Amino acid sequence: MFAFSTVTIHDCILRNGVSVPVVVEASPSFPARRYTDTYNNRPPPTVETWAARPTPLDSSSLEVSLTGLIGEGRIGVTYSARVNSARDASGLDVTNSLPKEICLKFAKPPYVRSLAREAWFYEQLHKWQGISTAKSFGFFSTSVAQSHSGMLADIVPWKESKKVPRHQYHPDNDSQNHLKDYLPDDAPDPRGCYSDEHGFHRDSPWKTWEHCPESPLLAVLALEKLGNHYFMPDKEPPNRLEGLRNALRAMVDDIAQEGVFHNDLTAFNILGVPEESRTLCPRHNRRHKWRLVDFDRADKMDPQNCGSAELNRARAQVRCIGDVWRGFWGAVEE
Q: Where along the chain is composition biased (Basic and acidic residues) (predicted)?
């Protein structure tokens, strides 16, 4: 799996109507606090693998051009991008080792922390990338400062964003609330469900980061390009219904083994995989036809050091599949 130090993106920024390339640099992900069970004795501290993966500081590079809008979600806008060239840390041309197109997920300006958090979950699920989750090629960012005239360049993904994100409750209800990106483990925690023994979350630069309109951050998560989302309820083949849903449950079981609670298991976050890209799952001895995406609101426990409640919660995720009452199809009109 390639991890690049820089990505040069064409057709992303316009200055005076003219496209100029932008270089985004590898950035650290944002570790979540560990989910724990208050009704059991606290397990031992988490292992060092909880830390964000070190960012590559070498000459590895990727150059891409945006080719079209794929879609938009709560925190980001996704695009297809053609791979123009790629080099590894030694300078070797590895373009032919990559797909011809990938997916770039651009964070909406106030929601960079969420995208950094999602990047961390892909790191934690590295052994399931390309099997049950999308492959990740890294998380990148750069500051987009104002020009001398006080104007920002036109950022194409931001200009094409149409949806206004839905905000979750938080006690800091001030006039700048629309500029803040609250995560599940930011909220008050009276039950003590989150812990951070090693301080990976506390010491992350994303812990206190806030969006600055005068100097916004262009952040992007590079992923493999997948297909359309899972069937709507009236489109599921009735003669294959249980087989399809059981296949999805097996895929969710893979991430549960790593202690990950997705927390947003909807049809829209389960994307199809082209037949030539399907990889054998070592746990289920099958090639999953779908992959999970969008982990920005996920939680993670330490599966080696946890109580029965955490394990039961992880296993219970499979019940979301095909369950209208658990919001599997979300708001269908979206």
A: 163-183
